[in-house]
Amino acid sequence: MTTEQHSISVLGCGNIGLSIAHGLVNSGLYKSNQIILTKRNTESLEKSMGSKGFQVTADNNLAVKKSKVVIVCVTPAQLDSLLESIRSVINPKYHVVISVVSGASIDDISVKLGSSGVAIVRAMPNTAIQYCQSMTCLAVRGTHHVAGRAEIEERKDQALAISEKIFNVLGNCIVLKEEQIVPATALCACGIAFFFRAIRAASQGGIEIGFHAEDAIKIAAQTAKGAATLVLEGGYHPEYEIDKVTTPMGCTIAGLNQMEHNGFSSAMIKGIVTSAEKAASLYSKKQPAPSTTTHHHHAPQAHQQDSASTTTTSTTSTANNNTESKSNNKRRTRNQNKSTRNQQQQQTTESNNTQQEKPDSNNNDQSHEQQQEQAPEQHQPSTASSENNEQQPQQPQQQQQSHQNNNSRRGKSNNSRRSNTKKEQEDPNNPWKKQENNHQHPAPVYDVNSVDEALAKARSRNTHQQNGRGNRRGGSGDGGGGRRHNGNNSRGGGGEGGRRQPHQHQHQQQEAN
Ligand SMILES: NC(=O)C1=CN([C@@H]2O[C@H](COP(=O)(O)OP(=O)(O)OC[C@H]3O[C@@H](n4cnc5c(N)ncnc54)[C@H](OP(=O)(O)O)[C@@H]3O)[C@@H](O)[C@H]2O)C=CC1
Ligand SMILES: O=C(O)[C@@H]1CCC=N1
After folding, report:
1. What are the structural domains, with CATH classification, of the chain?
2. Which intervals of the chain are annotated as region Disordered (predicted)?
């Protein structure tokens, strides 16, 4: 397998499309001139990406004809028209279609492409893919759909192998059942935003206790990275690591408990559940087109106000305590649904307001690239774009997937590579942000053999760590799967008292193949 055979195009180069394109190059897996990028309004894409050697076009058909692997990165509202426009040039026996579109099932995509034989992979990455640090969840169609059709089955397997190869180099990937892609959207794709918010909140606390904003962000972000590294590399449960930080009668437990009293874990859990519910409906209830061309430029001040309102909205500690005492899964799920419904009533209004304010897609290309380059002062909230003609009727065949379905087929998981994310140079005008050329992230150059070698090494590393699953411990409230006490230990809101046992992180237990 060579990258030439797997010529690649990214259809719909907005936020995630651009992140993937940068990641493909930063990983060394592709050169920019091997990648075709499309969007309808290509002017700014030409400037920002064409100038770096990427092939830029508005012609999706051309892109598909020149590619083996076609990554579809349009919004759910834009998907149908895109698929209809490329269906005549998709060759089911040749192409691999990878869709990152939230809520659109493989069946939905097959129907729109007019063939059940196309090898389609659903992928749910996050924007850290730009620096080869994405968690990407993959799924292919369940085998019952293609029973007895060996040729299709073979193509599907090949498509999955190609996708795993790509996304393992762009971070870490696992293969799930398709019904888990919607929950994965919340945990993995939306999830990165939740951690950004956590970093921002931490930095705001840092400013209040005396740090300059720039230092506070750096300290908070590196600390978050350190926490993630301990969990991923050490393989221990977060609560085990927390135990090592919390000196008896010390300041850490005092801060943690204060956070839990204010519903920290519960807010995160509810946010994830709400995002999953929303993700499930994104394609079937395609969003109305934006009605204004307003662009939002949030000044740091506005960010802080926003955050303040966020932190004062929590009414979760009661819910948290209530749910902590319920170890029965079904009961916990009912409670989640109830609290989420309440929260969603509120959010529907907010969401509708937000929809009205989305920027128009003619300016969209510019905003995407700006979003990847700009300072926080200029930062816009992430907004999906669509045009007036993109409002689609509801899809009767859409099967909404429940976020509660946890029957996973955990697939192959590899810590395929560690990206060197060291900041090289700072923009004097923008101490927050790396200069554009830092997109060309230093990374080992992979040829296909070295990719295979890298994956093999990652697999052998993982197999060393494949041991018992240890105890799963929920952080608090209605999340997690472990046993809970009624809350004497308020650290994390819901763990067992006393010392925790080492916990092997689940994805490290996967049979690496
Ligand atoms: N943002 C994220 O972090 C993640 C997003 N996703 C999913 O990825 C998809 C894209 O999200 P996001 O990047 O945020 O959205 P964006 O709105 O930023 O990007 C969509 C892009 O598609 C382009 N586009 C629309 N129609 C066409 C068309 N017919 N042909 C070519 N290009 C087209 C638009 O540009 P133009 O108008 O110029 O054509 C736009 O640049 C969504 O389905 C989302 O659910 C999944 C994981 C993470
Ligand atoms: O917010 C969204 O709808 C998309 C899907 C996951 C991340 N961004």
Report:
1. 8-179+407-459 (3.40.50.720), 185-389 (1.10.3730.10)
2. 281-513
